[in-house]
Design goal:
Layout lengths: L1 H30 L6 H19 L2 H16 L5 H18 L2 H24 L2 H20 L7 H7 L7 H23 L15 H15 L8 E3 L5 E3 L5 E5 L7 H17 L17 H15 L3 H14 L1 H4 L4 H8 L16 H17 L7 H13 L25 H20 L3 H6 L4 H10 L9 H9 L6 H15 L2
Parallel strand pairs: 1-3
Antiparallel strand pairs: 2-3
Helix pairs in contact: 1-2, 1-3, 3-4, 5-6, 6-7, 8-21, 9-10, 9-12, 10-11, 11-17, 15-16, 15-17, 17-21
The structure holds cobalt (II) ion.
């Protein structure tokens, strides 16, 4: 059996290497590649994609996994090897359930849909995107059909991003959360608004970049194993735990995108740099789920980066970089400004208090569409009604409404809720961290983040994909994903900022 296990590990290591080679090409494509190279890069990526697909569904791999199953059952169920065999078998089963001709058609349909979406958004004309979206919904429903054991067709889609999570679980979490968030936003809306105009003025790009670097260096981002470059849509990408790169965006007239974007991506990178070395090149060297991954970026961006202790340390440095912009803005005013709550039409611009409502709307739309209860043609109207209900605003056009996000054009149904779940997990972990490190706020106030990073490494990062997200939360936090800590966090924070 030892020999078979070694054989399995060799195959998984090679599949991982192929994936990382493809990821490097993808990183280059979004940072430095000249535009004229798109076709050549497309060919390279298509070949790697095909090889990965072939290797991860090969009968040889399937046979090995079958043979190793009894061996895995004889091991400690939480050991690396038992989990490796179990998770790889799950990946294999999922990959082989989907016929190759479906994958080919899906790629063709989504490539065309993505182009149509760009044009539809530019012209704010849903009718351009509609026939494509109808095809995508049809394909997603067909995809769900490949997993007949799923209790709800949407379960199959959700499972690709949140392994083991059910539609009913997410619905229950959001049902508990929604009235409390709506009530909080109403209470804030009744109070005088805080000023954040000082964030929107010219800020030297080089100085912004340098300040961001200073912050994430203190967070513990290891420049021997990472680098930062510019990209129009910031992302983090990992090529094993020894090379995790981030990208950021600098707006010369608005401080927030660089400031919070850099901390967000650094949070992802710290996660990627923290996978246990033993998991390297096994396929377990990834995030347990998108929500767990997002919890790490949000924790550094919001729980740390939008907190008062953080700015008690960093604000004097920011003022040194930008004396004419914020030299005369008192710390308290700055802190309130970066935490301003304002219902808005666009998800990616939403603040911490309103963000999840944008996600709830999308989840309802997706479930209704996949269930066949909502026709694609009725989507814009449904969207606008829900926006009015949840955020008290009606989009003036579809570009600012139903067409704003790119995800559906890629066929990504089941993805959005992971953003909100990530917020909930970040607050849940934060309560635990503060219990385990009672003087954490003092560390942060002193610009020291090591105790926090060590905690996250130990409890979350090192496990990689060994556990499903709910299982990991049960082990670490003693309960599954729970919205209560997030509500407590928002209430405490905004009561103080808005004097509720
Ligand atoms: Co993220």
């Amino acid at each position: 059996m030892e020999k078979k296990l070694a054989e399995l590990k060799t195959i998984l290591a090679e599949i991982t290497d192929l994936g990382q080679a493809s990821a490097i090409l993808g990183w280059d494509q979004q940072t430095y590649m000249p535009r004229g190279a798109a076709e050549a890069r497309g060919n390279q990526q298509a070949l790697l994609g095909r090889l990965i697909q072939e290797w991860s569904t090969s009968p040889k791999l399937g046979k090995l996994l079958d043979q190793l199953k009894p061996y895995a059952e004889s091991l400690d169920p939480d050991s690396d090897d038992a989990r490796l065999i179990q998770v790889s078998a799950r990946d294999f089963a999922k990959a082989t359930c989907v016929p190759t001709e479906f994958v080919v058609e899906f790629t063709k349909v989504t490539t065309a849909a993505n182009q149509a979406w760009v044009e539809a958004r530019q012209k704010s004309d849903f009718s351009i995107f509609r026939p494509h979206l109808e095809k995508i919904v049809g394909l997603r429903r067909r995809y769900a059909g490949f997993f007949p054991e799923a209790g709800h067709p949407y379960d199959a889609l959700l499972d690709d991003f949140e392994p083991g999570m059910k539609t009913d679980d997410v619905k229950a979490i959001f049902t508990a959360l929604r009235p409390q968030q709506v009530e909080l936003i109403k209470a804030i809306g009744a109070k005088p608004q805080v000023d954040d105009s000082f964030l929107r003025q010219p800020f030297d790009e080089k100085k912004q970049w340098d300040f961001g670097v200073e912050v994430i260096t203190k967070f513990g981002y290891d420049w021997n194993h990472g680098r930062q470059d510019k990209a129009p849509h910031p992302f983090t990408t990992a090529f094993g735990y020894t090379d995790v790169r981030i990208t950021t965006r600098v707006d010369p007239n608005f401080l927030n995108p660089m400031l919070f974007g850099t901390m967000h991506e650094c949070g992802h990178a710290l996660h990627g740099l923290g996978f246990a070395p033993a998991l390297d090149r096994t396929g377990l060297d990834g995030s347990a789920s998108l929500a767990i991954g997002e919890s790490q970026s949000r924790l550094w961006e919001n729980l740390v980066g939008r907190s008062l202790p953080f700015w008690q340390h960093f604000y004097p440095r920011l003022q040194e970089h930008f004396p004419s912009q914020v030299g005369n803005v008192p710390l308290e005013k700055f802190y309130k400004g970066i935490n301003r709550v304002q219902p808005s039409l666009i998800r990616v611009e939403a603040d911490e208090a309103t963000y999840n409502l944008h996600i709830m709307l999308r989840l309802e739309v997706e479930i209704a569409v996949i269930e066949g209860k909502l026709a694609v043609k009725d989507l814009p109207e449904y969207w606008n009604t829900k926006m009015q209900e949840y955020l008290g605003m009606t989009p003036p056009n579809d570009a600012a409404g139903v067409l704003q996000d790119i995800h559906w054009s890629f066929g990504a149904f089941g993805y959005f809720s992971t953003y909100a779940l990530g917020n909930l997990v970040s607050a849940q972990l934060w309560e635990m961290i503060n219990r385990d490190i009672p003087d954490l706020a003092d560390h942060v106030r002193a610009g020291k983040f090591e105790s926090l990073l060590v905690w996250l490494r130990e409890k979350i990062h090192r496990h990689g994909r060994k556990f499903k997200p709910q299982e990991l939360m049960q082990k670490v936090a003693g309960s599954k994903i729970d919205p209560a800590p997030y509500v407590r966090y928002l209430r405490t924070k905004y009561s103080e900022i808005y004097g509720l």
